[in-house]
Amino acid sequence: MTENADLQSVLDRAAAGGRITPEEALELYRSAPLHALGQAADAVRRRRYGSIAHIATYIIERNINYTNSCVTACKFCAFYAPPKSDKVWTRPLEDILRRCAETVELGGTQIMFQGGHHPDYGVEYYEEHFSAIKKAFPQLVIHSLGASEIEHMSRISGVSAEEAIRRIHAAGLDSFAGAGAELLPARPRTAIAPLKESGERWLEIMEIAHSLGVESTSTMLMGTGETNAERIEHLRMIRDVQDRTGGFRAFIPYTYQPENNHLKGRTQATIFEYLRMIAIARLFLDNVAHIQGSWLTVGKEAGQLSLHYGADDLGSVMLEENVVSSAGARHRSNRMELIDLIRKAGRVPAQRATTYEHLLVHDDPANDPVDDRVVSHISSTAIEGGTAHPELKLIDAG
Ligand code: SF4
């Protein structure tokens, strides 16, 4: 049997729903023809979604950044400021609540509370903020934070990770956004985030969360110098935990943005590598339901293509984003455009909830939403003066 025939038989097995090994995934990722890889991944997506496979989803959400003060100093990060720096800012609770109110007004259903590892913010800070948000806006889902924040806040408060998760869940956290996964294998993780917890610890905390009924998504930061084998190892680590917990709702790879950080000059992941990753994730992560395309970091056309390489979701209209835009992501969109992009990629668009239920299926263009204020903003803090819609009344961080 030739090498190509071997590759084809692995691809056929994966497309038919069979489990592939990490070694086989690496071989496919390296060597399978791009279109064949995409076709196999799309076959798996179609089988998984059956009668609703013609739909691709999006969500309306807002990232709310509560502080940029951070003791962890990841080398790829363009958002943080060291705690003693005069660039540090924190957002008062009333400002956070106003941003939540705007999110509700614009039809947003989810907030991502996102910030640095502030040296003074323990469990109590998050309890106070989440309970205030839930009290004022019970309809908003708090899909936020990740294992890194849990590790940090539990250390500040002197409690276990389990207690920290229980308490912030009781205060209002609905699910974890899976931030801080970056790259889970030790070598690339230490190279870009030497002060972050290990990949094993990140997964251990997610596993604790899942056992407490707090589900999460999982992410991967591509393109900071990691090898193909390390990318596949990242997927293996997630799949192994998922076999035990089933708590990862989605996998979201996104590409490193090279501006304003200490890794400047490293090679970014190409669109080609990104699409191969979307496809291999759909094939390898046979136990994760949703694979998300990220138009924000790879652009709209690559986002559309991802829907043909195994992705079933195109991310969000992000009413505010400050983190990846600080590092150079400049793609902007709005709800009407996102609906149009999905439709022109050959799918029926649907607005979804955090838990992926369809809230509104846009099956008739005549009934499309027309509110032109539902726009993805690159940020009130990432760019001097911001690009915020005036009606949103976003304020400068200063
Ligand atoms: S990625 Fe997060 S933890 Fe790392 S420096 Fe930036 S804000 Fe801090």
UniProtKB/TrEMBL annotation:
Binding site for [4Fe-4S] cluster: C70, C74, C77
Family: Belongs to the radical SAM superfamily. MqnC family.
Family annotation (NCBIfam families): CofH family radical SAM protein, menaquin_MqnC
Lineage of the organism: Bacteria, Bacillati, Actinomycetota, Actinomycetes, Kitasatosporales
Protein name: Cyclic dehypoxanthine futalosine synthase
One Gene Ontology term from the biological process aspect of the record: menaquinone biosynthetic process
A single MF term (Gene Ontology): oxidoreductase activity, acting on X-H and Y-H to form an X-Y bond
A Pfam entry, by short name: Radical_SAM
Alphabetized InterPro entries for the sequence: Aldolase_TIM, CofH/MnqC-like_C, Cyclic_DHFL_synthase_mqnC, F420, FO_synthase_su2, rSAM, rSAM_sf
EC number(s) on file: 1.21.98.1
Pathway: Quinol/quinone metabolism; menaquinone biosynthesis
Keywords: 4Fe-4S, Iron, Iron-sulfur, Menaquinone biosynthesis, Metal-binding, Oxidoreductase, S-adenosyl-L-methionine
